[in-house]
Design a protein that fits this description.
This protein has 723 residues and is of the alpha/beta class. The protein is 43% helix and 18% strand. Helix 2 runs antiparallel to helix 10, helix 20 crosses helix 22 and helix 21 packs across helix 23. It catalyses: glyoxylate + acetyl-CoA + H2O = (S)-malate + CoA + H(+).
């Protein structure tokens, strides 16, 4: 049973209270009375506005449902557009907007690069992500399918020199492409030396780089350096040299590795990739964020017989033409809070009411980040005195305005200047996409990024027009008109509000962490579309995707897009309804089974293991990154087909049971896994998955959190009873 402490007019969970008092407040120059009184005032002022925003969401959805009942199928564009204006769904556009956000770090303003998203409650993953600022190109190539396993280059238990040769050849081609010699190739180099502050290269005679400005500096002796640091498109590359190393001693130039600057920014996630349902979970979330901000987060784990300790990486130093230089060893960390929907019982008001979880997140994660501003830790995250908060799942400009008001009040309570807290606006809800310019206007002095998220956005697309008809198959969504319009319109607004000059225009996740060859072939498209950052699922993927930023000058692409892109609101309003929902029986069954398997594979770990982000094998055993966004689209898609008679409740149940047996089999190797079959009625995870579909129509905006949170708490309570 949770215990609470009365703090002014608030009831605060004892675990949270002790954590704030003993671990967070000391060193922030914020005293206990100021913080708790400030929290009380903010909750009193902004909880009503948050609740009102959620009521508006419901009212608008009811009006949309009513419209679709009266106008089934694809709507008349003019009538539909007019109706959306009448109900306030489409907002007046207003005057042009110019983003003026200041004091942003160069990782946001200057460096285009990969962006990781990592669950903050997993310390090992969080440290790995922070350290993914730098990644080994050799490791990334050797360990993935970018280098084919053929012609003797297979991955074997021991090091395969033949595969190693192909890795080294690939890396030399990368150097030749982006750091060419004035003559010859890096393949022919026998030594790299520094003479009179310049890089001199021995390759059948003394050579230099075609572009000498690409040489930044070195580490070690000038005549025999340990590392040569290069720069291209604002990203650094480090050629590491060690003739005694197992790889270096077989290399003509003594190169043991090529290190790439990779994940320049990382979203430390307290939202969709995290399962945090009570005070105990949330304190774990906040404690890891505190460890990242103070630089002392560490974790140990077993690797074979060996115990490995993981800590945050030091900065990288070098000697340049103008003396000592330093490059951060860690990604710039951005904290993703939860959205406006959920409440939490870790703090209650005087009348016993739960408070909005987003208010708690803003207050506590920003207070924690003040340690960074005061330089209380080993490292500095922001060199410019900013706190970066990513705010997801906002619907329209008034909800963005609410977030802006919240951050203003938080700044006053924690004692930092106005606009210290920067906001990343996730463009993942339809009402935000259609009114993005107005959303940006509300945070024009705070916004540091906008980005697109195909999965959540598709979930909202389905739920918004739930009663319009049966949706097209999930795989066909990627070719739909609304989606390309959404992606282009997001870039258009990022360019025409001048956000691109000082911040990030982000693109979505590559969801297949094992399919790196495909990623290398396709993900450059995100940069060619106008993005200057894009999400990757792992540090390895970050190192590989970094090569795209060497190939493509994103600033040049964006300048060109200024002239060619247009806002496509009308196309965005094309609802992805199936004109002829008479699929072949095999296709219909496959769609249902694919959705059911994805839902169950994710939900079973969320509800019964508290794992919010999983690599889940699909029907074809391709591993996909799943989080609540993928769950939202799958559950809404099945629920939509149920609503329109494409399947029945009985078929949903039987499909779920069939797929649960498959998921059980796929998880046989996990000692912590509890099978769902055969006792489906007593499996909390199975019942949660079934409820997400059968009750999908009634879930707010199609979100999965209310059911997941309730079912996870139910499972935790059962565990306590059996202890």
């Amino acid at each position: 049973m949770s215990t609470y402490r009365k703090q002014g007019k608030l009831e605060v969970n004892e675990l949270l209270y002790q954590f704030i008092e003993q671990e967070v407040l000391p060193g922030t120059k914020v005293d206990s009375t100021t913080f708790w009184k400030g929290a009380e005032d903010i909750i009193s002022e902004l909880q009503p506005g948050t609740e009102a925003a959620l009521e508006i969401r419901e009212e608008i959805q009811k009006k949309l449902d009513s419209w679709h009942r009266e106008n089934p199928g694809t709507p008349d564009p003019e009538k539909y557009h007019s109706y959306l204006k009448d109900i306030g769904y489409l907002e007046p556009e207003g005057e042009d907007v110019t983003v003026t956000t200041s004091n942003l770090d160069k990782e946001v303003t200057e460096q285009a690069g990969p962006q990781l998203v990592v669950p903050v409650n997993n310390a090992r993953y969080a440290i790995n992500a922070a350290n993914a600022r730098w990644g080994s190109l050799y490791d990334a190539l050797y360990g993935t399918d970018v280098i084919p396993e053929k012609d003797g280059a297979e991955k074997t238990g021991a090091y395969n020199p033949k595969r190693g040769e192909k890795v080294i050849a690939y890396a030399r081609e990368f150097l030749d492409e982006h750091f060419p010699l004035e003559e010859g190739s890096h393949k022919d180099v026998s030594s790299y030396q520094i003479k009179n502050g310049s890089l001199t290269i021995e390759a059948a005679g003394m050579k230099t780089l075609k572009n000498p400005a690409a040489f930044l500096g070195h580490r070690g002796k000038e005549e025999d350096p340990e590392a040569v640091i290069l720069i291209n498109n604002s990203l650094h590359v480090e050629i590491q040299i060690d003739r005694t190393h197992p790889i270096g001693k077989t290399d003509k130039a003594g190169i043991k590795d090529v290190m790439l600057e990779a994940a320049t920014t990382t979203i430390v996630d307290a939202e969709d990739s995290v399962a945090a349902v009570d005070a105990e979970d949330k304190v774990g979330v906040y404690r890891n964020w505190l460890g990242l901000m103070k630089g002392d987060l560490s974790t140990t784990f077993k690797k074979g017989a060996e115990e490995v300790k993981r800590t945050l990486s030091e900065d990288r130093t070098y000697t340049g033409k103008n003396g000592e230089g330093r490059i951060s060893g860690r990604s710039l960390l951005l904290m993703r809070n939860v959205g406006h929907l959920m409440t939490t019982d870790m703090i209650k008001t005087a009348d016993g009411k739960e408070i909005p979880e987003g208010i708690a997140d803003a207050l506590i994660t920003s207070l924690i980040a003040k340690h960074d501003l005061l330089k209380n830790g080993r490292f500095q995250n922001s060199k410019t005195g900013s706190i970066y908060i990513v705010k997801p799942k906002m619907h329209g400009s008034q909800e963005v305005k609410l977030t802006n008001a919240l951050m203003t009040r938080v700044e006053e309570v924690i004692g930092v200047p106005k606009n210290t807290i920067k906001i990343g606006v996730m463009d993942e809800e339809r009402r935000t996409s259609l009114n993005l310019k107005q959303c940006i206007r509300e945070v024009k002095e705070r916004v540091f990024f906008i980005n697109t998220g195909f999965l959540d956005r598709t979930g909202d697309e389905i739920h918004t027009s739930f009663l319009g008809g049966a949706m097209i198959r999930k795989g066909d969504m990627k070719q739909s008109v609304w989606l390309s319009a959404y992606e282009e319109s997001n870039v258009y607004q990022g360019l025409h509000t001048a956000l691109y000059k000082r911040g990030q225009i982000g693109k979505g996740m590559w969801p297949m962490p094992d399919e790196m060859k495909q990623m290398m072939e396709q993900k450059s498209g995100h940069l060619l579309a106008g993005g200057n950052t894009a999400w990757v699922p792992s540090p390895t993927a970050a190192a590989l995707h970094a090569m795209h930023y060497h190939q493509i000058d994103t600033k040049q692409v964006q300048t060109g897009k200024l002239q060619t892109l247009h806002p496509r609101a009308e196309d965005m309003l094309q609802i992805p309804l199936e004109a002829d929902p008479s699929w072949e029986e095999q296709d219909r069954r496959h769609e249902l089974e694919n959705n059911a398997q994805g839902i169950l594979g994710y939900v079973v770990r969320w509800v019964e293991q508290g794992v919010g982000c999983s690599k889940v094998p699909d029907l074809n055993n391709v591993h996909l990154m799943e989080d609540r966004a993928t769950l939202r689209i799958a559950s809404q898609h099945m629920a939509n087909w149920l609503e329109h008679g494409i399947c029945s409740k009985e078929e949903i149940r039987s499909t779920m049971e069939k797929m649960a047996r498959l998921v059980d089999k796929q998880n046989e190797g996990d000692p912590d896994y509890l099978p769902m079959a055969p006792d489906f009625d007593h499996s909390t995870a199975f019942q949660a998955a079934l409820e997400l579909v059968l009750e999908g129509k009634h879930q707010p905006s199609g979100y999965t959190e209310p059911i997941l949170h309730r079912r996870r708490r139910e499972f935790k309570a059962k565990q306590l009873q059996h202890q």
